[in-house]
Each structure stands twice: as C-alpha cells, then as structure tokens.
Amino acid sequence: MENQLLVSLSEKYGSPLYVYDAEKIISQYNRITSAFANVKSLKLNYAVKANSNISILKLFKKLNSGIDTVSIQEVKLGLEAGFAPEDIIFTPNGVSLEEIEEVAKLGVQINIDNISILEQFGYHYPNIPVCVRINPHIMAGGNHKISVGHIDSKFGISIHQLPLINRVVDNTGMTINGIHTHTGSDILDIDVFLAATEIILNTAKDFKDLEFIDLGSGFKVPYKEGDISTNIEELGERLSKRFNKFCKEYGKELTLMFEPGKFLVSEAGSFLVNVNVVKQTTSTVFASVDSGFNHLIRPMMYDSYHHIHNISNPNGRERYYSVVGYICETDTFGSNRRISEIREGDVLCFNNAGAYCFSMSSNYNSRFKPAEVLVYNGKDYLIRKEETFEDLLKNQIIIDIE
C-alpha cells in the first residue's frame, strides 16, 4: 500500500483510520503453510484476539484457516463468519465452567488450562474429548507481559502436574485428544521454540488418544527497517522433521497446529492519523495527532515500537519529533523520532497496526473508535464505521436525577 493510496483513503474515510492489506495477510498465511509443507496434516488457527473484525475472519475462512478463540464471544463471531465448530478451538484462561459448558454445547474443541476445571468438566462431560494446555516453564517472548510459558505465569497446567492430569483422566474416564502450549509472543530464538516443543512431545507420548499437538505461536515480525524476525522457513524445516519423527514413534499421524495472530496480520495494518498541532517546547518538538492510547495502546502498554512516517510529505527534510496523542494523560507513540518534516494537517502512518491495535481500543475520554478499511483485490472496503455520539449512549440508561 503506497503513500498516495493511504492518503486518499484517509481523505475518503476520515481520520484516524485503520487500513488492512489483504494481500499481505494472504502472503503471510501462505508463508507458514509452505514452511511446514512436509507435515502431512497441518492446521493453522488464526488467533482472533489479534484482530476480530468479521471481514478479517471471513478472509481467513476463505484461506481454509481455523480460528483460535479465548471467549464465548469470539466463538460466536467465528460461527457468524462461517467457520464450522470443528474448525474452532477454544483456549480460555480463568473463565467459569459455565462459559466452557456453553462453548462445548456448540461443538467447539475445548482446551483446558487448569486442573480444577479439567476435573469438573471431566466429571460432567466425560464423553467430550478435550485438549490440555501445558506450561513448559520456559521464559520466552519480547516483553514480560507477553511471556506466558514461565513458572510464574497464570497460563497452563504446570509440566510438573502431569500426574494430576492422569489422575483426573483415570477418575473421570475422559479423553485427552490434544496437547497445547504457548510460551509467548515475539519469539526470535528458534532453539527456544524447539526446546519447548521437545518438552511437549515428551509429554504427549504418555497420552494414547491424541489427535493433534498445538504449539501455539509467538513468531516475531519486523517492526523497523533492518529488524530481524523469526526465520519461519528454518523453523519449519527443523520442526517438521522432529514432528514427523514423533508421529512415527507415536504410531499415528497427528495434526500439527499453530495459532498465529500477530504474524499473520500485524504487518498488514496501517494506522493513519492527522496532525493537529506541531508544538515547540524548550527541549522537544511535539507532533500532536488526532488519536491516543484509546485507539493504539501498545506503545504505552508494551513499549512496542511502531514505525511512524509522514505520508503527506515523505520527501521533506527530516527532523526529530515526539509523536503524541490527544488523551489527557501521557500518551507518547514515539519519542525523538526522525521523520520527514511534519506540518499541521499532515497524515502520519503507523506501521504494524494490524494486530492488537483496534482490538484493544477503547472509548477513553469519551472518544469514538475509528473506522476500519480492508484493501482486497485492489479495492477498498469499509469494514467498520466510525462510531458516533449515539454509540456512546447506546447502552447507557438515563435516570431522572432531581
């Protein structure tokens, strides 16, 4: 998506605006499937939490993807998008037994990550096979907030609690049909991923009714020029050999699953904002834009980097700016960034805005959530309207206060 197109979309649909490139999503999906082409049964389940717009889900349905969900609402979105129940896996954390029961009644694959719910579910529904999420106690991920496989994490059943899982299975007669793990996001070191895989495969051999092994995701994408990312091709070659060897040892062809989110949609997204004010202080030049952490919270929450460039004046003389939002708290998108000269009214573009951006947006300061656009086969489609004042009041109940 070139600058001229993005500027025209900003003019057409208004600002701020999320724009997604379907071509990039498709190429990333095909890149993973090609990397693991030597695995006889491969299943990618797109992580809905990354970007849950139903048009994005429909695109993945067209690609023959499954989906990974973490809430009953995401499950229902998947069904609404046309996914069959058997193409949906439900991997929640800390939810009630009632929510898991509701999902189970829809025919979706259940993934359980604690002994208490496993025992309760197995007692009431011993005939419904479930997957179990294992915590391998491996620290991995680009930030401690997105590292979920270490010993202090709330996610998964500890690798040291396998005897408890076996006891529950024996006492309830339930069937474990899958083993799952996810150690974190932005994993760069392939050897760390393979180490976690080895732990899971050693665990899996003790379960005799498996149909699949789900190794999560966490593949890193580049955030800036010259940045490095997970070598998915090398990982595919090395992991495929190990998995195929395990299947022979297990005596059965299992399905290898992944649940990528960021890897599939992050680079496809651009977030467009207008510059309201260029403010010179004694030490800094601020470019204040018509957005804030109500629309894009990742830099404030995870210290994540989003490359920012001026698509209205791409060839201007480069200067240093701190790009900030309009929220009445500190909401700095980028400090001391070298950007082509910014003028009031210019359109700035934030890269890597396809994952965990709109999906984490809010109405803080009573601001509207922005519109979303999908560029597909050379044509732009509005896939979410900008909110209105009526949307802010929609679920509020006004009472008479005298």
Automatic annotation (TrEMBL):
Keywords: Amino-acid biosynthesis, Decarboxylase, Lyase, Lysine biosynthesis, Pyridoxal phosphate
UniProt cross-references to Pfam families, sorted A to Z: Orn_Arg_deC_N (PF02784), Orn_DAP_Arg_deC (PF00278)
Entry GO MF terms: diaminopimelate decarboxylase activity; pyridoxal phosphate binding
Keyword Transferase: no
Keyword ATP-binding: no
Residues reported to bind pyridoxal 5'-phosphate: G218, Y356
Chain's role: Specifically catalyzes the decarboxylation of meso-diaminopimelate (meso-DAP) to L-lysine.
Protein name: Diaminopimelate decarboxylase
